[in-house]
Amino acid sequence: MSKVVVIVSDLIFRTKISSCAQTVGLPLEFASSLDEFTRIATDGTPTAVIVDLEQDDMLIKGLIDSAASHEPQPRLIGFCPHVRKEVMEQARTSGFDQVMTRSSFASNLPSILSEFVA
Questions:
Q1: What is the DSSP secondary-structure string of 13-81?
Q2: Domains in the chain and their CATH numbers?
């Protein structure tokens, strides 16, 4: 079974992601800090990490570094509001595999999560 970790602080959006994951049959693990992500990743390398790029910059940098140390490396998917173009570009150049606007992420959520259903 794929292991997908989600890092998002918005509780309403977290609920939306969780509900969609249940619908497609994908178990998720949520982390709210780098320590929590590290603990989850220690129990098995995640297949993917979904990140709200509105998180603290140090958390995102630490996440990128931590993900790079795993083999195989998890797929990093980031999203943020469309007006945060600089944040999206920084995520792309920092190693995220897929970066999209929050609205695009929300509208494509079922297909994004379905990719990881084993």
A1: HHHHHHHHHHHHT--EEE-SSHHHHHHHHHTS--SEEEEETTS-HHHHHHHHHHHHTSSSPPEEEEEE-
A2: 4-114 (3.40.50.2300)
Among 54, 53, 56, 47, smallest CA distance to 29 is for 47
Q: Is the dihedral of CA 85, 89, 90, 91 positive or negative?
A: positive
CA distance 112 to 34: 23
- First CA to last CA distance, the chain: 5
Q: Give CA–CA dist 89/93, Å, rounded.
A: 6
- Strands 28-30 and 98-101, by their bridges, are unpaired
Read off the pLDDT of residues 14-63 as tens digits, 9 standing for 90 and up: 999 999 999 999 999 999 888 999 898 888 889 999 999 998 888 888 88
